[in-house]
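Appendix C: a fully annotated inverse folding record. The material below is reproduced so that readers can follow the format used throughout the book. The structure is listed first as tokens, followed by the designed sequence.
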């Protein structure tokens, strides 16, 4: 389960040089080509929604609105990159994670904020460095029931730890926030290992996060930008399950 973390950490000097190799930025740009038409549609549709949200909320919360706009667009580019086996997702995920985390802290939505920090530390940075996420990305799947058990055990351990930590704070939604963060941590581990089963976790997490941000909105904080983004995430999850050439239609 944790082989990719060990591999990256033990080869950190070698893998770090790959980031600054000649032609790296042009290679990143090329990673945005060849996506499915549906992915490009979601990218454009989300951009329009983000502009609407930015215009509506800028006068009340300008800093949050700009951060949410940047994070909302890049986060969608990230998840679409994952679905299309594109190496661009690492950098998009890292930058969007910083923007969304700051927005989450400012809005008092601590679950999303720590979720994004978790993605940044345990997923985005490793995906940027991991050669298996930068060259001919291959989809894998669970081979037996033991893998289901191990990842399930990891989820419940993550939930227990996050629940304990959140219970020591003033978080008003300890149960839901810790559950949501446990889904995010488990999904990050599945994604790093390129397991297609990650989309079961991410689908549930998308629904929970939409509900959390809707509740945050009703309490007078935040804006629609991240609700739009996570709704796009949900549509992208559906594409991963049913789309032609998606993670569940790939040869593994």
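Designed amino acids, in order:
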């Amino acid at each position: 389960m944790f082989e990719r973390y060990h591999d990256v950490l033990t080869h950190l000097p070698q893998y770090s040089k790959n980031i600054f190799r000649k032609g790296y930025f042009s290679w990143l740009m090329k990673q945005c080509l060849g996506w499915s038409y549906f992915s490009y549609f979601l990218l454009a549709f989300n951009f329009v929604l983000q502009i609407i949200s930015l215009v509506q909320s800028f006068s009340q919360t300008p800093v949050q609105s700009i951060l949410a706009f940047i994070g909302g667009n890049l986060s969608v580019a990230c998840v679409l990159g994952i679905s299309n086996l594109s190496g661009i997702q690492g950098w998009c995920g890292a930058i969007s994670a910083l923007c969304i985390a700051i927005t989450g802290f400012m809005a008092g939505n601590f679950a999303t904020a720590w979720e994004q920090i978790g993605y940044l530390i345990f997923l985005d940075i490793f995906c940027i460095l991991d050669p298996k996420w930068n060259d001919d990305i291959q989809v894998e799947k669970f081979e037996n029931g033991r893998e289901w058990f191990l990842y399930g055990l990891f989820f419940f351990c993550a939930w227990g730890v996050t629940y304990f930590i959140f219970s020591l704070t003033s978080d008003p939604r300890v149960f839901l926030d810790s559950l949501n963060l446990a889904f995010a941590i488990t999904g990050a581990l599945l994604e790093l290992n390129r397991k297609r089963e990650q989309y079961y976790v991410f689908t549930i997490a998308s629904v929970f996060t939409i509900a959390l941000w809707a509740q945050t909105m009703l309490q007078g904080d935040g804006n629609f930008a991240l609700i739009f983004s996570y709704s796009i995430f949900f549509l992208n999850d559906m594409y991963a399950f049913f789309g032609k050439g998606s993670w569940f239609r790939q040869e593994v």
